[in-house]
Write a structure and sequence with these properties.
Length: 168
């Protein structure tokens, strides 16, 4: 027996359809940072491991993002994996117009001058190798040059438009 798709339930492709479907997809939460004239950063749920040799990652960024002008020109970015204890930090870096690097955010300058956030589960500093146009976004490919996986805690997740903790 073969399954027949329910055509009545099918919706045409649209930005709303994509958002609705991806609300069902739980994703890890990262913050990407960079430094130009000032530090910038944004919350990302599009982080992916691309290759082990050489070690490559990718993430998406909207070209209307306030961070895009710096990310579009920087040579290096910081990638931070957030823990479930960092919901407020994730919200701060997701909020338009927020002072993302002001108190209570704790950070320091890391390798290659990249802003590194304190208290994260893990971080990487990566050299940007490509910025690929993808609709109203750019897909950034970056090669890992340094990092630390030794943070303590459990990962923060994003699901149904909210930050969530991992459950067993």
């Amino acid at each position: 027996m073969t399954a027949t798709p329910d055509l009545a339930a099918r919706r045409p492709a649209s930005p709303d359809l994509l958002r609705s479907v991806f609300r069902q997809h739980a994703a890890g939460v990262a913050v990407v940072t960079a430094h130009g004239d000032r530090p910038v950063g944004f919350t990302a749920t599009s982080l992916s491991s691309v290759a082990a040799e050489p070690p490559l990652i990718s993430f998406g960024i909207g070209t209307s993002s306030s961070s895009w002008p710096v990310v579009s020109e920087t040579e290096h970015v910081g990638v931070h994996i957030l823990g479930e204890h960092q919901r407020e930090l994730a919200a701060t870096f997701a909020r338009s117009g927020a002072d993302r690097f002001g108190p209570p955010t704790r950070w320091r300058i890391g390798p290659e001058g990249v802003p590194l956030l304190d208290g994260v589960l893990a971080w990487l500093v990566c050299r940007v190798v490509a910025r690929v146009p993808a609709g109203d976004h750019r897909l950034v490919l970056a090669e890992v040059v340094a990092g630390d996986p030794a943070g303590a805690g459990r990962p923060l997740l994003y699901h149904q438009g909210r930050f969530n903790a991992l459950r067993d």
